Amino acid sequence: MIQSASKKYNCIIVEDEPIAAEILENFVSRDKELNLVGKCADAVYASSLLNIHDVDLMFLDLNLPVIKGFDFLKKLKNPPLVIVTTAYHQYAVEGYELDIVDYLMKPIPYDRFLTAINKFKHIMVSEEALLEIADRDYIFINSGKKQIKITLQDIFYIESLREYINIHTKTETFIFKMPISKIEESLPSKMFFRIHKSYIISKSKIEVKSANMVQVNGKKLPIGRTYKPSIEF
């Protein structure tokens, strides 16, 4: 991945095991594009770091004292991208539901750390390349070296699949490596809204609706409990 020499991504380490934190700090220091702005051992201190610094990436241990990692993450209104570090396999599914970039099992090998960082950088580049068009009737999204033009009126719904999104349109389905939260920011709210952690729908394409479900283009999509209060059909 080619970045300008001046490009820096701010990151913090939230880890209560001193040795694990030291290993991560060493790994981060080897990458000139990563700038470690803070290191802490609990969620309270992590909150203050996030308030002080503009953080792009958080390395988050799940087994933190007082407030556990995922509970802390769910409370954040605008969380940075997150790479989870843990010794426990069972959290992987929940992690992907929270738009986690990657999931590192301790002890973390350096090559596995590099894979996670490359995923993070790919997402950041995709986010930077997402262009908002002034008249709001189409968007361009980078796909490799190409820019794909997508007309907003053609979109039925957008589906999140781990670190990818599928944009379902009248003619085809486009797949991009990008968190659903990032494309949500670029879509006009008068045309689209989020109904679930995994779905954004076009308001004009709703065929059937109920308290728990909407049907778009023949597909039944669930309405997430946390999204119900803010949905206005």
TrEMBL record:
Keyword Zinc part of the UniProt annotation: no
Location of the HTH LytTR-type domain: 139-207
Domain Response regulatory as annotated: residue spans: 10-121
Residues with the 4-aspartylphosphate modification: 61
Domain of life (superkingdom): Bacteria
Keywords from the named record: Phosphoprotein
Stored InterPro entries: CheY-like_superfamily, LytR-like, LytTR_DNA-bd_dom, Sig_transdc_resp-reg_receiver
PANTHER family: STAGE 0 SPORULATION PROTEIN A HOMOLOG, TRANSCRIPTIONAL REGULATOR-RELATED
Name of protein: Response regulator transcription factor
Organism: Chryseobacterium paridis
Higher taxonomy: Bacteria, Pseudomonadati, Bacteroidota, Flavobacteriia, Flavobacteriales
